[in-house]
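Sanity check record (used in CI):
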Amino acid sequence: MQLEVLGVGGAGCRIADAIRAAESADRSFLTDAFAFDTDERALNGTVIPESHRYQYGREDGLEGEIDRGFDVGRERADELLERLDRGAPADADAFLVATGLGGATGGGTTPALVAGLQRRYDAPVYVLATLPADREFDSDADVARTGAGARSRSPSGAGSDAVPRPNAATNAIAAIERLDGLASAIVPVDNEAWLRPGEGIADARERCNRDVATRVAAVFAGGDSESGGDGTGPVAQNVVDASDVDRIVGNESAIVALGYGDQAVETSGSRFGLGLVPTERDVETSEAVRAVETVVRKGIRGKLTLECDPETAERGLLIVGGPPAWLNRRAIAEGRRTLQSTVGGSGVLGGDAPRPDGDAVFAAVVLAGVESERLEDLRAAAERTD
Ligand SMILES: Nc1nc2c(ncn2[C@@H]2O[C@H](COP(=O)(O)OP(=O)(O)OP(=O)(O)O)[C@@H](O)[C@H]2O)c(=O)[nH]1
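Expected output for Tubulin-like protein CetZ:
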């Protein structure tokens, strides 16, 4: 499928950058990636081509005030949407607006941008939004190595990420409330769960953004029917396309969590001799089954973009990918049944994603309509601040 990515604000632009980097040359899944920010320095820190970067609004910032951010969003959204004509937005099967909630730029602009995209295009508009970590707005949280010491350790390029954001929870909740009913679905990425003890955003962001981009690519580059890119590669038996993703995540602003698991496997360069692609006969069935079982378990029970109980999901999607010889059909079907019994509903779809050049088996899991205590915790923190 073809995804159009719009990064807004510091986090959003860096995540858009990472998603672009996760696109492999022979498996394109992006129409375009754009970066929009009020901060020109942050914008220039991305490798998104200049034609697709755009500085808007006030350079001197919004001082973390989300209401000012909403005003700027309303005033400037049309101008940003016009930039999309530099690419091919009409070819997109879906839009993904990447943003970081907690500041004023990304969270402020995203609702108006999403509303504009919904008005202009038929394709669904998903929002991938980071949630702030407690240590950003609560000086007692993770005191071990954060606080002033950690801030001063931040590299000079850390920009506003190194500054405490007392309004972060309030801003994040205000933005989520505006997105509810506007976004087709919301994929929160909870920084609290992704940061290690003592880490600041600036220390962790490259790793986090790469992990998030891997998940996005696994879902949206899914099982292309032309998996060689030129139509010559092995074809997925069950292709996951844009309408499958659409059916699972829905169009009612469901909260979505992404899971991912992978396991390195032996391929041509290792056991099978240089240059020889293993065939199904070369791979022990029991080994292939175990690999698929392992990655499916990690995908469902491992770290999710948003901590939640997978049992609360209303619908689910499973994509199992890797070198074709390792994609054991029965194990993949069993994985899908496992997901089905986990989410307890009938809304489960599955597919495979052959990667002839891959050296790992992976599972990408989409859990849609989940309930998460983290959002309630942030809401409570926002109420305490107000
Ligand atoms: N995962 C991740 N989170 C980030 C990153 N950068 C910032 N964040 C988070 O996103 C929130 C918003 O930060 P930015 O995106 O830099 O802020 P902004 O939207 O540009 O808004 P202002 O700085 O107020 O103009 C922060 O509170 C962090 O929680 C990043 O690269 N990756």
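The CA atoms of residues 73 and 110 lie 7 Å apart. If this sentence no longer matches the regenerated tokens, the check is flagged for review.
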